[in-house]
Amino acid sequence: FSPPPQEIVSGESEEESNGVNLMEFSDEILLHILSYVPCTDLVLNVRRTCRKLATLCLDKSLTHTVLLQKDYKVNKDKVKHLMRDIGKEIYQLNMAGCYWLPSSTIDHVTRCKNLVKLNLSGCHVTSLRLSKMLSTLQHLRSLAIDVNPGFDASQLSSECKATLSRVLELKQTLYTPSYGVVPCCTSLEKLLLYFEILDRSREGFMLSGQLMVGESNVPHYQNLRVFYARLAPGYVNQEVVRLYLAVLSDRTPENLHAFLISAPGSFAETGATKNLLDSMARNVRLDALQLPKAWINGSGLLQHLKFNNPFYFSFSRCTLSGGHLIQRVINGGKDLKSLTSLNLSGCVHCLAPESLFRKAEDDIDSSILENLVVSCCNLRHLNLSAAHHHSSESIGSHLCQLLSRLKHLLSLALPVCSITDVAANVEKPPTASNLVPQTFGRKVRIGIQTYPRNLADQANQKIESSVFWSLMGSLRFLETLEVIGSSFSSAMPRNEPAIRNSLPPCVRAQSVGDSEVAAISQLTYLQSLTLAQLPNILTGSGLINIGLQCQHLRTLSLANLGMMGKVVYMSALMDMLKHCKCLRDLRLEQPYFCAGAQFFQALSHCSSLQRLCIVSRSGTLQSDAVMSFMANCLEVIMCHMFMGESLTVCKNLQQSIVRSFQADRPALNVVIFPLLHEDLTEVIRDVPMRHLDEITLFKSRVAEEPPNLWW
User: Fold this and answer.
1) How crowded is the C-beta side of 399, counted as CA atoms within 13 Å?
2) Which residues lie below 8 Å from residue 203, measured CB to CB, with a gap of 6+?
3) Which terminus of the chain has fewer Cβ atoms in its 10 Å neighbourhood, N or C?
4) What angle do CA 486, 698, 548 make, to 5 degrees?
């Protein structure tokens, strides 16, 4: 049926008279709108639509800083045209993680003569290309690069070294033992070092950090204000960082105010590092501190270090007791209002007076946490994960009640056993599900409790009176939440074979399930959520509430929820995904996960999804469903699946995805591989660091680094 012509005309005239023309907005409003559009689209597409947009798209506020680090559609030609059109207007260029761009793309950066800040972390850059590029960037003051095998500092020209001598901030990721460009940067004020050197080469030869000894130049630290080093597992990384620290121990920079070393496992203290710390205690006042656990445990170091206006502390994995924390760090609450980020992950005794005769599962002393909350009232990031923080049944306030006073919190990481209601946990007898062993043996049939599937019905139960419900209600502006079992360990390895056995959850965590998950749906502004080892998940109904209420959710990581022999929350997860329109990253780790047609059909509703990672022992997948999903979700550029399928099935599916979609998605990264295959570590080493660090490997990310460590 077609309406009469006169009705169409009248309708058009009414739209013209009442409608809003975008071009009638003020320039200020249009510039604000355009700031949300990727720069490549602005310059190469939007500005060609009309004269007004042609002028606005080249405004300095839009071209001053160009961010390409998550523009997965950018390719070499787009970068070439972008640099040609606005290269001279760019002062800050971020290409971090653009692993898919060929190394020749870097040649076009030479057009950006006025660059002050440049981030090329994760990009392919040879010594010669780096030399040629830096020779033309005389105004550069901030640089981030990777140092790969084959890097040769002797190939850097005198003009390149002159540019480096003026650089004030350097971020260097090392994949081979080397000083990189550090010796050339004689004016450094901020040095960030990421050590990703493997102990063995691809050919199986053992590497040694002593390869650096032959280099003639050494770092210059006299102007250093910030020193940060993050080590991946491996003894070579420890050897190399010691060589960097040896220079620092000779003469401690007077202006040093942030000293941070993040090292997994055991990193023993040496005479040189002890001299460095003693010198720091005498000569500097710090604003940020992180040290390997062996350097703090059993020493009186914290008692002697002086702090100015500290904004970041990390005592991850240290045996620091609550008594020492109060006496030596908080110091009665003096000058701690400035602290915005605190990482106590793995500090099993940090909320207890003493650690000598205490068991890790003993109740906490709530007065220590209360002192911490009062003293550090402006905390925005707090990590208490990887420890048993059990509130007392009779003495003091509950942990959740105390944390609810931190109204400025933006990110929070908690162990599962810390959020349970003590009274409920004591009074309630163990349910059938609690008695089911968390193993992979014969499945046990149990009665499944029926849970209401909407928020209103659940609120009528005990949930509204729970301490965790109250905590979630008081932290309305929380953006990142992690609730992780204190004994949880991921099956996904870093430099070792996949973990085959998992530890059982804490007894106190046995009652944490669907109602606690539903409480999270009060966080309207939640952007990132991690839930791991919640044993009492029976239906996953709380996930639906989160999908409905948390419309800003971008990152979701779920691991080992409910029974280990069956994915009991699959139906609820599929219902949840239908509402997650902003979800970009999804990580699922669950034994026996079936990635079939129904799951991928539900996942296809996540129109913004970019990265997917599934880790599942004995898990299965349907190749046709995966291919259909990839065809429907055009934004997906990363698909990692580590399942129980055969190597042949995995390889065929991976090749099919690459062959079908690589041409239209230049950043596409696909890894499909058996989880328990002996060659998994070799496959992992080829995954781009951006994906490996941000999603593929499981870890707590709250307060992992100081805020705004790099731009």
Assistant:
1) 23
2) none
3) N
4) 85
Q: Which helix (H) or strand (E) holds 289?
A: strand 285-290
d(CA 219, CA 92) in angstroms, rounded, equals: 26
Q: Which pLDDT band holds residue 428 (cuts at 50, 70, 90)?
A: very low
Q: Note whether 63 and 86 are within 8 A (CB).
A: yes
For the chain, the first-to-last Cα distance in angstroms comes to: 58
Name which of 599, 590, 589 is nearest 621 in CA terms. 599
- Whole-angstrom distance, CA of residue 268 vs CA of residue 292: 8
> How many Å apart are CA 214 and CA 208, to the nearest integer?
13
Tokens matching residue 117 = 């800040």
What band does 457 get if pLDDT is binned at 50, 70 and 90?
low
Rounded distance, CA 417 to CA 409, Å?
Answer: 20
State the residue for tokens 């992979």. 440
What rounded mean pLDDT belongs to the chain? 88
Distance, CA of 143 to chain centre: 21
How many helices and strands, by DSSP H and E, does the chain display?
Answer: 27, 22
CB 586 within 8 A of CB 603: yes
Using an 8 Å Cβ cutoff, are 159 and 109 in contact? no
- The pLDDT, as a whole number, for residue 298 is 64
Report which residue type is found at 255. Answer: N
Residues 6+ apart with CB under 8 A from 650: 641, 643, 672, 673, 674
Task: Decide which of 267 and 493 is more confident.
Answer: 267
Locate 188 and state its tokens.
Answer: 């450094």
Of 36-45, 423-432, 526-535, 600-609, minimum mean pLDDT range: 423-432
CA–CA dist 32, 30 (Å, integer): 5
What pLDDT, on the 0 to 100 scale, is given for residue 512?
96
What is the pTM assigned to this prediction?
Answer: 0.91
For 406, the 3-state DSSP assignment is: coil
User: Which pairing describes strands 306-314 and 638-643: parallel, antiparallel, or unpaired?
Assistant: unpaired
Q: Which of the given ranges, 282-296, 428-442, 645-659, has the highest pLDDT on average? A: 645-659
* Tens-place pLDDT, residues 345-381: 999 999 998 867 778 789 999 999 999 999 999 999 9
SS3 of 482-532: the string is EEECCCCCCCCCCCCCCCCCCCCCCHHHHHCEHHHHHHHHHCCCCCEEEEE
Angle at alpha carbon of residue 320, lines to 383 and 228, rounded to 5°: 60
- In this predicted structure, the answer to whether residue 8 has a pLDDT above a threshold of 90 is no
User: In this structure, are residues 547 and 422 in contact, taking their beta carbons and an 8 Å threshold?
Assistant: no
DSSP state of 167: -
User: Which burial class, exposed, middle or buried, applies to 167 when counting CB atoms under 10 A from its CB (0-12, 13-18, 19+)?
Assistant: buried
Among left, alpha and beta (phi > 0; psi -120 to 50; other), residue 445 is: beta
